[in-house]
Design goal:
Radius of gyration: 28 Å
Structural class: alpha/beta
Order of helices and strands: HEHEEHEHHEHEHEEEEEEEEH
Helix content: 25-40%
Number of helices: 8
Strand order of the largest sheet: 5-4-6-7-3-8-11-12-13-14
Number of strands: 14
Oligomer: single chain
Length: 345
């Protein structure tokens, strides 16, 4: 009996230590599911187990997909460390694209603040840097809003990430690491998670070609690229075309969600996610942009139909005679000044 009691106390002590590391103390399990919140009181409440949500209303970053946000109990936690995994090196582009999509959503809520992207020289040589001109066109991010810090060693990148995670002058911090280095252990991720909680800012840990391992991150998402469907036109899908970028998102670990898999499509025009089943897109709870071009029905056989269109050539074909009207056209330097292009300003 004495040995049983000692073993029980040892197990309870280990459970409490694990809960302390993860930031979910056992006494928080008694928090009611619908407790009243006072906006003037700085309450430290977190989600502690599936089905019981005790958190501030603005504690999550909604992805914009109803089923995924419901599975994550509201979205990704803002003041926390979140893992985004790519199982293979070829998934580096998909992981970076998904991280930029999340960055676009964050900058909508915190305009004017930059985002710091930290990585080692090895990861930037292997995966490259985001294309500056594509930031605004695809994600609505201005190039000056995305800062990069290239560290020669992993220990330097971790130090920069820990110092940046405590800064409220940044909208978010992204740390990109390749593989499963020994220095990125439970203690290192616990420090990043604690800094993110203190600053109230998200820290995204991008893991390229990494195997899942114990970390202090409450959420782990596994991202791979998904096949793109043809582009939508007025006449229907355009055959042979490449549509919007798509991601296959798997919930690998979450304190509140069951494992699940989703196919998301990024809309660069609206800077928002849509869920997709096969070739069908759904944008729930959001009005899609309307095509401003009016669609006019074909003519019903009028008296004066338009002439058939012919080939329009910029220059006459070789050997064809030049018309007198074309011969009388002035050369470019002889054109009057008011017909030339105006300078801006």
């Amino acid at each position: 009996m004495a040995m049983t009691a000692v073993a029980r106390e040892t197990v309870f002590a280990l459970r409490r230590q694990i809960a302390k590391i993860e930031g979910t103390l056992p006494e928080r399990l008694a928090a009611p599911a619908a407790a009243p919140f006072d906006a003037d009181v700085n309450t430290d409440l977190t989600i502690v187990r599936r089905g019981i949500a005790a958190a501030l209303p603005d504690a999550f970053l909604p992805i914009g997909v109803e089923r995924l946000d419901a599975a994550l109990s509201g979205g990704l936690p803002k003041a926390a460390l979140s893992e985004i995994h790519g199982t293979q090196t070829r998934d580096a582009g998909a992981v970076a694209g998904f991280a930029l999509s999340l960055t676009s959503l964050i900058l909508k809520q915190t305009p004017g603040l930059p985002v710091l992207w930290i990585g080692t020289s090895e990861i930037f040589r292997e995966a490259g840097f985001p294309y500056a001109r594509g930031l605004h066109a695809s994600f609505g991010i201005e190039p000056e809003q995305l800062l990069f810090s290239e560290a020669p060693r992993l220990v330097d990148a971790l130090w920069v990430a820990e110092e940046a995670a405590r800064m409220t002058a940044l909208a978010a911090v992204i740390l990109e690491i390749r593989g499963n280095p020994q220095r990125l252990d439970l203690t290192a991720t616990r420090r990043l998670h604690a800094r993110a909680q203190a600053a109230g800012r998200p820290v995204f840990l991008l893991r390229q070609a990494a195997e899942p391992e114990p970390t202090a991150a409450p959420v782990r998402l596994i991202v791979t690229s998904a096949p793109a469907v043809p582009r939508d036109t007025i006449a229907g899908p355009l055959a042979g075309s490449i549509g919007r970028p798509a991601f296959t998102l798997t919930i690998g670990k979450s304190r509140t969600a069951l494992p699940g898999q989703f196919t998301l499509e990024w809309n660069p025009d609206e800077c928002a996610f849509d869920e997709r089943w096969g070739d069908e897109r759904r944008s729930e709870g959001r009005d899609r942009a309307k095509n401003p071009v009016p669609v006019v029905s074909l003519s019903g056989g009028g008296k004066n139909p338009a002439a058939a269109s012919g080939a329009v050539l910029a220059f006459p074909a070789v050997g064809s005679p030049i018309s007198p009207a074309a011969r009388d056209q002035p050369s470019r330097p002889q054109r009057t000044a008011h017909l030339g292009p105006r300078r801006a300003g």
